[in-house]
Amino acid sequence: MEIIIGKYSGFCMGVNHTVKKAMEEVQKNQTIYCLGEIVHNEQVIQNLENLGMITVHSLEEVPNQSKVIFRAHGEKKETYQEAKKKNLEIIDLTCGKILFIRKKIEEKRPDHYILIIGKKEHPETIGTISYAGEYSGIIENVEDIEPELLKAEKSSQNKIYIAVQTTFSTQKFQELIDKIKNKSKKEITVDNTICDATEKRQNETKQLAETVDKMIIIGGKNSSNTKELYNISKTIQKNSYIIQNKNDLEFKNFKKSDTIGIMAGASTPKETVEEVIDALKEEIK
Ligand code: SF4
Question: Does residue 124 carry a catalytic annotation?
Answer without folding.
Answer: yes
